Amino acid sequence: MTLHPQIIQKEGRNEFVVLPYQEYIAVEEALEDLQDLQTLEEAREAHANEKGTPLADVAKRLGF
User: Fold this and answer.
1) What global pTM score does this model have?
2) Cβ distance 19 to 4 under 8 Å?
3) Which of 11, 26, 57, 60 is least surrounded by Cβ atoms within 10 Å, i.e. has the fewest?
4) What is the percentage of the chain residues whose pLDDT exceeds 90?
């Protein structure tokens, strides 16, 4: 992802960053994906020792 930030200074110090809207959306989506991945990893770790259910059994229970 290539970003084209505009830095705005206040009293000689970097204070704000402005991004083109589409780049902002891309950053926001990437951060959401990262958060989802972290949540998935936490769930995997929390349930690592639990026995799974075969897909065929789940499909049968759901009537597929």
Assistant:
1) 0.67
2) yes
3) 11
4) 97
At 48, list the tokens: 């690592």
User: Is residue 18 within 8 Å of residue 5, measured between CB atoms?
Assistant: yes
Amino acid making up residue 60: K
11: which 2 tokens? Answer: 């009293």
Task: Report the SS3 class of residue 29.
Answer: helix
Query: How far is the C-alpha of 35 from the C-alpha of 20, rounded, in Å?
Result: 23
Contact 18, 6 (CB under 8 A): yes
| The two structure tokens encoding residue 63 | 């009537």
Distance CA 2, CA 4 (A): 7
Beta strands, E only, 1-64: 6-10, 13-18
Residue 45: per-residue pLDDT: 95
